[in-house]
Amino acid sequence: MNVLEVKNLSVQYPGAEGASEIVKDISFTVEEGGITGIVGQSGSGKSTAMLAVMGLLDGRASVQYGQITVKGKAPVPGRNIAMIFQDSLSCLNPSVKIGRQITETVRMRKGCGRKEAAARAEELLETVGIRNPALRMRQYPFELSGGMRQRVVLAIALACEPDLIIADEPTTALDAVVQAQILQLLRRIVRETGTALLLVSHDMGVTAAMCRNVYVMHGGRIIEEGAAEDIFYDPSEGYTRQLLKDAKGGRLREREKRNVDDPANREDALIRMAHVTKIFDADEGIRDVSLEIRKGEILALVGESGSGKTTAARILTGMIREDKGRLYYRGQILQRGRRMDSFGGKVQMVFQDPYASLNPCLTVRQALSEALDAAAGLAGRGAVDGRTAGHRLTDQEKEERIRKILALTGLSYSDADRYPHAFSGGQRQRIGIARALITEPEVLVCDEAISSLDATTREQILELIFRVQRKIGFACLFISHDMHVVRRISDRIAVMYGGQIVETGRTKKVCSDPWHPYTKLLLEAVPEPDPVRAKKIKSGPVKEAAGTDLPDAAGGCCPFAGRCGYALECCRRERPEQYVFGDRGVSCLLYSDEHSGRRSSAYRMTSQI
Predict the structure, then answer these.
(1) pTM for the complete prediction?
(2) How many helices (H) and strands (E) does the chain have?
(3) SS3 category, 462
(4) Locate the ABC transporter domain: which residues (predicted)?
(5) Interior/surface letters 172-189, b for 16+ CB within 10 angstroms, e for the rest
(6) Cα(342)–Cα(340) distance, rounded to whole angstroms?
(7) How many CB atoms are closer than 10 A to CB 411?
(8) What is the pLDDT, as a whole number, of residue 548?
(9) How far, in Å, CA of 237 to CA of 492, rounded?
(10) What residues have CB less than 8 Å from 501, skipping those under 6 apart?
(11) Element (H, E) at 405
């Protein structure tokens, strides 16, 4: 039996040159108690179609259809149909506690009293894997991690007791481990409650892991449909084949890796962090972090949301100050108060959200020109070794720089006079990269710069970074939670957990033979674009991590001990040091002589997990 039936759905928006048709006469169904997927690039019309089904499009949209029914009735949001959106923070009221937001939904649906609704809310939080639900009900959304907020949104959806849940990119912003937990949770809820699930995603791995039937959208149309195995193993459309190729990394050429083991290269550190600590409220931040970025290399920094990756990047770029530790640029200590001046514009950053990182009131030319002026001003105050002078470019020199960087990043010179709203997400990210590279930096920091992009656009941006790096030769700190991308793009990798670096080494070695239990968990949680292999992903417990419940987690124990299947008794009492073996470093007591036995000088360390 079909829970959802949609026939001949079209959506149009008025424009200066006539109506623009975003969704073009599509039809699809969702089976009862099953999971159906809709995949396609950003801009293919997936989300617009879902909002039309929910009746949530604004008044400008013209929606036409032959039939939209949920179990033979019209869809009623909050009754027989519910929706989970990509950005959980924007879905929750930031000024209202979690418990009240869930209980209000329960009372509206069931017409019960506050006490009964509160009990049901705690039960729902327990169902979606949140530990200590009574505590969480007293907290505000900003006090929860991204994964926990997404669980709360799911609990609110379940409070509606719907026949169908539409999940629109529910795991895009989550790291691999939390994503796997949310996917496992969704599967369990479908199995135990009989609620049907319509999963909308541009992630072919997630779709392969979850869905029984799949629809492929392109240009507002459904161009292919069928069982997941047929779509993934024998696609009939060239567009579907390209999606799968991009998801597997088929477009990106193999990068020529540097010999990072060469002692000469180890002395080429442009920026080095030494025992840096930065603690915010609630004891969050980074502790005793040491890492270096060498000339011409790509260093990947990976870890789950809240592990401290962005904090480390912001300290490294001078946006925030560390509490303790030292930073070195070209071998010289950087003073905390003059860090941006010392860099002289030679360290630049590309941010995660291409929509929020550009000023909507500035044209591309104005944004690029502003970046050049800012870099010249910083250089004028004196870089650390006097290499840069405060020379401000003439208008003609600026224009030539703008022309060259637009061509280098795959944009047209005619784009210079357009505003950000006129570009797609991928094009905006190209503008962000152009703005960072126009100052000719020595170090480029990419903070989750491709996490919100679909597979095809992601491959284009990665190819762009590779191509420009080969031409310019900058070093790059590439922050990501996507292990597929990291293993292909980087020379070396540093893995963070709980504000600490837990493993470092050459990317190929770390990804093929992880030494730290958390690194192994990260790698096992990545879904492949293959229905058989993707359904075998491992996520660990569905409940939120219990590691924070350990005594003195900040300094008296291993931060991963509460989630580790290899934990020793000493892991709950002692904080591991960084144990170095050749080019590998690992913070795990399994590698200490004190707890694992003294080894001979000739012993060659291997993975202990």
Answers:
(1) 0.80
(2) 22, 22
(3) helix
(4) 4-244, 271-523
(5) bbbbbbbbbbbbbbbbeb
(6) 5
(7) 19
(8) 42
(9) 37
(10) 289, 290, 291, 494, 495, 578, 585, 587
(11) helix 395-408
Give the C-alpha separation, 364 to 418, whole Å: 6
Contact 400, 314 (CB under 8 A): no
Q: How far apart are CA 507 and CA 54, in angstroms?
A: 44
The per-residue pLDDT for 551 is: 40
| Nearest partner of 144 among 131, 157, 158, 156, judged by Cα | 131
Q: Which residues pair with 11 in a beta bridge?
A: 23, 63
Residue type, 533: R
* Rg of the chain taking only CA atoms, in angstroms: 25
Give burial (CB, 10 Å; 0-12/13-18/19+) of 61. Answer: middle
H or E stretch covering 22: strand 20-31
H helices of 451-582, in order, are 455-472, 483-489, 507-512, 517-524, 531-534
CB atoms within 10 A of CB 387: 12
List the structure tokens of 255: 């990068």
d(C-alpha 511, C-alpha 522), whole Å: 10
Do the beta carbons of residue 429 and residue 453 sit within 8 Å?
Answer: yes
Would you state the pLDDT for residue 552?
45
More confident residue, 344 or 101: 101
347-350 sheet: strands from edge to edge: 347-350, 443-447, 475-480, 298-302, 492-497, 500-506, 584-586, 579-581
Q: Which residues of 558-586 are buried (b: 16+ CB within 10 A; e: fewer)?
A: bbbbbbbeebbeebbebbbebbeeeebbb
The strand ranges marked E within 50-110 are: 62-64, 67-70, 81-84
The SS3 call for residue 83 is strand
CA 23 to the chain's CA centroid: 28
Asked if 519 and 503 count as a contact pair (C-beta separation under 8 A), the reply is yes
User: What is the spatial distance between Cα 485 and Cα 457, in angstroms, rounded to a whole number?
Assistant: 13
Q: Could you give the C-alpha distances from 226 to 28, 37, 342, 498, in angstroms and in order? A: 11, 10, 58, 42
pLDDT at 259: 55
Strands 584-586 vs 579-581: parallel, antiparallel or unpaired: antiparallel
Among candidates 273, 290, 293, which has minimal Cα distance to 500? 290
Q: Which two tokens stand for residue 223?
A: 């161009």
Q: Which value, to the nearest 10 degrees, does the dihedral of the CA atoms of residues 46, 52, 57, 60 take?
A: 100
pLDDT at 343 over 80: no
pLDDT tens-digit map of 375-394: 777 655 555 444 444 567 88
Q: Does the CA dihedral 190-193-195-201 come out positive or negative?
A: negative
Give the three-class secondary structure for 29: strand
Each residue's pLDDT tens digit, 17-61 = 667 889 999 999 999 989 999 999 888 899 899 999 999 998 889
Sign of CA dihedral 278, 284, 286, 287: positive
